[in-house]
Structure prediction request, 124 residues.
Amino acid sequence: MTKPDIELSNLPGFNTVEDILKRDSFVDGTMVRELTFRNKTQERLFRCDLILCFVHDYDDAEAVRYEFEEVHGLESRETHQVSGLAIKDVSSRGWDRTRYEIYDYEGDAIHFYCGAIRLSRTTE
Prediction:
């Protein structure tokens, strides 16, 4: 896989999860608490969104929630653990409604493309 070029700190909502990310290592052995994939229609077009909530430990009350909009090309080999997400800007390719490539940079557990990303904090 190619090197990520988008830092989490540049994503909308980073300020709401910054203290969680500094407190726990979301790089090694991150567990997926929630994985939700939904299809919906918007302006007569189908749109697929993906929500991933990560915790460092099973007992963690707070999680980092990633909301990915307009997801396509989803490939997943694992649904419970991701080593870490890499985010690459692919907007220069000119693909319709596609700005980012997302992938697990160590374990190859997940890979997809999306149009937008938002971070937020969530509790169990």
Summary: The beta strands are 30-42, 45-55, 62-69, 72-76, 81-82, 85-89, 100-104, 110-114, 116-123. DSSP finds one helix and nine strands in the chain. The mean pLDDT is 81.
